[in-house]
């Protein structure tokens, strides 16, 4: 399955954070191996992640912020139930 650059760039942070499965990582890597604009964008994002890690590596979000974010994430989850009639 061919990926377009928009899909690859949308998942770059998942790949950088090690949050994608092996199949997704392989598809993204295959695309970037053949697409110089995407590999360049990946390199830029990798440098940004490294810089953020160096400058903010020891910082932890306050518990109140973490709690508010968790609440908002739970509120934004949409559950869809699909029923079939056979």
TrEMBL record:
Domain Putative zinc-finger span(s) in chain numbering: 5-38
Matching InterPro entries: Anit_sigma_mycothiol_RsrA (IPR024020), Znf_put (IPR027383)
Pfam families attached to this UniProt entry: zf-HC2 (PF13490)
Identification of the protein by name: Mycothiol system anti-sigma-R factor
């Amino acid at each position: 399955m061919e990926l377009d650059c928009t899909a690859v760039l949308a998942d770059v942070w998942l790949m950088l954070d090690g949050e994608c499965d092996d199949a997704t990582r392989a598809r993204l890597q295959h695309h970037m191996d053949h697409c110089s604009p995407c590999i360049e964008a990946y390199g830029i994002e990798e440098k940004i992640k490294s810089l953020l890690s160096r400058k903010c590596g020891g910082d932890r979000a306050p518990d109140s912020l973490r709690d508010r974010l968790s609440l908002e994430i739970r509120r934004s989850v949409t559950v869809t139930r699909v029923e079939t009639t056979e």
